[in-house]
Amino acid sequence: MESRNNRHVGNRYSGPRKPKEDNLEMIFGLRPIIEAMLAGKVLEKVFLQKTARNPTVDELLDLAKKADVPVATVPVEKLNKLTRKNHQGAVAFISAITYSPLEEIVTSIFEKGKNPLLLILDRVTDVRNFGSIARNAECLGVDAIVIPSRGGAQINADAIKTSAGALHLVPVCREPNLKDTVDYLKNSGIQIVACTEKTDQNLIDNKVDMVGPTAIVMGSEEDGISPEYLKRADARLRIPLMGQIGSLNVSVATGIILYEAMSQRLREENAAS
């Protein structure tokens, strides 16, 4: 397992209004949002009025698609709640972090002769859970966190605070299609390990080797990992529970399985030295 100082690849990242759901810097108006994307600003999400359709809207949608920025079409009432100013049918939020390209990260890790440890989050929606998971990931050697463009937690000030700043240290990759992403990782020689209750394979049995290139998948708070990702997993692991409650908080479960992966890698490193 590589040292704490050199295990990350890619960049380290280092008012505004406070809408109820975002705590992110807001921009509004079709042209200001377009100019922000053209200037390289990373947008967390765009809200577009349902009835809006003209060449400027088409330009905005095209740019958002190229940048993998989620766009939600909403009633004008939603936009009016976000701002009382002349929004022209479009409101966007600037991301609190800069997202990293997954392929570049994976390539860089392999070129350095290291085994990637990636964390894939399937529809983890609670902001504080996400922040806690990011903190676990940074402390336990994760090279990058992979999230979907849609259906995941908003990375806002609350998430960054809960992460204790880890979201400025661990690269986050926002992927438009997690299914394609999982297939890409498998084709790159990275095993997919699903942490799920839907298996008899116990984590403490130590039968799954996570020293090699590994991506661990954690599921949503509501219904766990999607079936399409479960069937693609090379291994499924269950965390044994002794109490009457049938499941753990996803951030706690993430910490447990990442600790097991780190322990295996440390044992391998110590045995080789």
TrEMBL record:
It comes from the Bacteria. Signal peptide: none annotated. InterPro entries: Alpha/beta_knot_MTases, Ribosomal_eL30-like_sf, rRNA_MeTrfase_TrmH, SpoU_MeTrfase, SpoU_subst-bd, tRNA_m1G_MTases_N. The keyword Transferase applies. Keywords: Methyltransferase, Transferase. Residues 26-100 form the RNA 2-O ribose methyltransferase substrate binding domain. CDD domains: SpoU-like_RlmB. The keyword Transferase applies. This is 23S rRNA (Guanosine(2251)-2'-O)-methyltransferase RlmB. The gene is rlmB.
